[in-house]
Design a protein that fits this description.
Arc Repressor Mutant, subunit A
Amino acid sequence: MNPELKADCRDLERFREYLRLLARLQLDRRIQHKVDPSDVVQETLMAAHGAIAQFSGHGEKQLAAWLRAILASRLADAVRQWHRGKRDVAQERSLQAGVEDSSDRVEAWVASTASSPSEKLARKERTLELARALAQLPDEQRTALELHYFKGARLAEIAEEMGRTSASVAGLIRRGLARLREQLDQSS
């Protein structure tokens, strides 16, 4: 294993909010009260820590992909447990694809908001910063932003899911974006 990467691997904790964001995006909101994304991420990080010697990738991008694969496996386990232990290979593949798709959406959003060339070079770190900043938002603002920007839901769909009006959801998104920008500017 690359010595530089080995040092990075010891600090898997920095991926916690990123993985939690991906878990929230993949877990059906109807079972999130039964399957806590934070618990799934904790299991993911523990599994990664225990298996770090088997990680053979190089670089942060491959480390993040490895963690996403472990997360998808842990999500499949959690969903399977919720559905009384029935194994569904198609669902497991769907979760893996969903985690990758969510990761791509988050990274694309970060790339579209990056203004300078140096910010674009640091996109992966900005993705981790974005996940940490999102975690600090009030739950309803964070949920509205995640559904709109990372799941592509329209205001009416979000309003229905959250039991709010479209105008209320628009306000949550507007306030959430403003707060998110403040937090990201402070971390720059």
